Amino acid sequence: MSNNIENIGNQYTSEKNKKKQRHQMKMRVVKKRIALFAGIMLAIIIVLSIMLVAQKHRNDTDAQERKHKEEQFQKQQNEEIALKEQLNNLNDKDYIEKIARDDYYLSNKGEVIFKLPGDKQSSNSNSSNN
Q1: pTM of the model
Q2: pLDDT higher than threshold 60 for residue 121
Q3: In the Cβ-directed half-sphere of 121, how many Cα atoms lie within 13 Å?
């Protein structure tokens, strides 16, 4: 049916056709601009998403490392407390005397130490515990 219709070649129809063509050109330019801006926005979103994932991975890694370092710090603090306690014990004369009597069978003047067969096993276990 549209094949049977012919355009009238007057000024009004030619202006309408030119106006229609200009509008179509503007719409093409607008569509191209929208597509360009959409592409740029999509690229920015993709880059930001990649950065977000990388930052999250880095934060997780740092959190694990921090936890490991805190555990090491806690172990070192416990070791320091044990060493300070041992140092205090070594400065105590009663403790040194007890160790000398139990582990090395030292005695005061006039004391006699009897060594029994069962004492050797108990003294070894005591010295390994201390």
Answers
A1: 0.50
A2: no
A3: 2
Token couple for 40: 């740029």
What's the rounded Cα separation, in Å, for the pair 36 and 54? 27
Which residue bears the tokens 């006039």? 110
The pair of structure tokens assigned to 19 is: 């106006």
- Environment class of residue 52 by beta-carbon count within 10 Å: exposed (0-12), middle (13-18) or buried (19+)? exposed
* Beta carbons within 8 Å of 44's beta carbon, 6+ residues apart: none
Q: How many other C-beta atoms can be found within 10 angstroms of the C-beta atom of residue 119?
A: 14
Segments in the chain forming alpha helices (H) = 11-91, 93-104, 117-129
Q: Does pLDDT of 68 surpass 90?
A: yes
